[in-house]
């Protein structure tokens, strides 16, 4: 008997009550439902324990367990029994899903809780996110909770109104205030909390400090701190100490309108980058190295990858690796591809460039797992285009193109005929519609990979290469910066 036939048979005995050895009397009216101890026990630890102490009655010569269920409505109980026997779930409303979840939690049916969680996840929006967070906390549904956290962290508009938290429980408010990656400016988060605190009627059982300690006052500016002080709920000592810290901070201009997420951005001067260049011309390698550093990176190392490869341990000392090749083979292409794959899986970030790194019709490209585990944002290609080209279509608002006005690839404009891989995002194209800049993070715990389908050497060294009077150095430097800070810069669901 196959699985489908088995479920159909179970549905039949549920409808007919055939071979039942349990009678449920459900709701206030004690509506009668029939069930089977073996099937019910396999799906619910609650029922499994209950049947050991159930009362019995004699029906047609056999013992039947009789169970009273006054706290669940017949409508909801029917949905639960149908799911237990057939794994089919049919709910008509959001409210019904909440009732099923409550019953599934009471009956210890974890699979059904997850089904309800999926329904809630699919309906998540700005209007219901906080009520769903309350549900996820009440019923301890981690998968739903994580999705809501990520939603709230990205949807800064839900905090635009000061009454955003009004009516929520202290547990939900405290949970929201503890989120580490909110995009909303900290002062607005404080305003929303203050409105909730003033209007919450049961303060006697609450300790204000439990909430105040959640705020990151150190990312507010002086005027914002004064606004906090005027609220009279934060100690004057703390405000004065923060003001002194602010005035003594050489980076205080960076504090303007900071959110928790943007406050975690690693500035250019603190990024550590390793450049692996398989290029037989030192002048070319140096030109690319200078472009990588051009926007403020100071901690960088250049390795001639034709003769030397770092170990994984050495790679992990850097937040991002930038690599390209030009008519020169990496010392060990297979080993490098495996190392880079493991580096990314451990959270390291990668920027990969053509001319030859993405091209597989010669011996100069990276091999190994980095090409075979669906990690790269662009496919590899077997043809390279040598013809004048420029940046055409682009997403001007994307961090990868910040301050990029023009890009001219020069008379060569070397680019590979590639396409964007599944679940990757492309933010810029050449004027012949070939992808120019794309990125991908395969799993949330993986590092970010940015692919630049352009040759990174400029016409300061190579006469057919990208024009220095355009923004190639900014594109290269942005790629490094974005790879490291993507989670804090992008609205993508990583």
Automatic annotation (TrEMBL):
PROSITE patterns: BTB (PS50097). Residues 20-93 form the BTB domain. Transmembrane segments: none annotated. Pfam families: BTB. InterPro entries: BTB/POZ_dom, Class_I_gatase-like, SKP1/BTB/POZ_sf. It comes from the Eukaryota. This is Btb/poz domain-containing.
């Amino acid at each position: 008997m196959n699985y489908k036939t088995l479920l159909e048979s179970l549905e039949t005995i549920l409808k007919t009550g055939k071979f039942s050895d349990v009678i449920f009397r459900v709701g206030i009216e004690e509506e009668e439902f029939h069930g089977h101890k073996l099937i019910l026990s396999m799906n619910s630890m609650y029922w499994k324990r209950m049947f050991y102490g159930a009362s019995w009655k004699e029906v047609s010569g056999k013992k039947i367990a009789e169970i009273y269920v006054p706290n669940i409505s017949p409508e909801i109980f029917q949905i639960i029994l149908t799911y237990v026997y057939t794994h089919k779930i049919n709910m008509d409303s959001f409210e019904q899903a909440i009732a099923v979840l409550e019953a599934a939690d009471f009956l210890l049916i974890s699979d059904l809780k997850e089904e309800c969680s999926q329904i809630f996840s699919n309906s998540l929006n700005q209007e219901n996110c906080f009520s769903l967070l309350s549900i996820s906390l009440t019923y301890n549904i981690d998968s739903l909770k994580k999705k809501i956290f990520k939603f709230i962290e990205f949807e800064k508009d839900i905090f635009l109104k000061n009454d955003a938290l009004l009516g929520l429980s202290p547990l939900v408010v405290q949970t929201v205030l503890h989120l580490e990656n909110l995009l909303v400016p900290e002062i607005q988060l404080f305003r929303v909390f203050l409105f909730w605190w003033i209007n919450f009627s049961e303060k006697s059982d609450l300790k204000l400090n439990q909430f105040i300690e959640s705020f990151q006052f150190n990312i507010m500016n002086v005027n914002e701190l004064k606004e906090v002080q005027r609220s009279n709920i934060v100690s004057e000592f703390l405000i004065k100490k923060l003001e002194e810290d602010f005035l003594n901070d050489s980076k205080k201009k960076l504090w303007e309108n900071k959110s928790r997420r943007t406050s975690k951005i690693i500035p250019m001067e603190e990024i550590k980058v390793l450049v692996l260049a398989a290029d037989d011309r030192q002048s070319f390698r140096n030109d690319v190295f200078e472009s990588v550093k051009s926007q403020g990176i100071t901690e960088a190392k250049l390795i001639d990858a034709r003769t030397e490869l770092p170990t994984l341990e050495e790679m992990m000392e850097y937040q991002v690796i930038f690599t390209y090749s030009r008519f020169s083979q990496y010392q060990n292409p297979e080993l490098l591809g495996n190392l880079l794959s493991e580096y990314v899986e451990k959270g390291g970030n990668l920027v990969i460039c053509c001319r030859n790194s993405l091209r597989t019709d010669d011996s100069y490209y990276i091999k190994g797992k980095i090409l075979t585990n669906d990690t790269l944002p662009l496919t590899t290609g077997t043809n390279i285009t040598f013809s004048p080209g420029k940046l055409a279509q682009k997403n001007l608002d994307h961090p990868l193109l910040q301050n990029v006005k023009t890009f001219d690839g020069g008379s060569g404009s070397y680019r590979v005929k590639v396409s964007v891989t599944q679940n990757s995002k492309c933010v810029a194209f050449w004027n012949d519609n070939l992808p120019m800049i794309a990125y991908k993070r395969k799993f949330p715990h993986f590092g970010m990979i940015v692919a630049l389908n352009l040759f990174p050497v400029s016409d300061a060294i190579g006469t057919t290469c990208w024009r220095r009077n355009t923004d190639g150095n900014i594109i290269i430097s942005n790629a490094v910066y974005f790879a490291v800070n993507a989670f804090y810069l992008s609205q993508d669901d990583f």
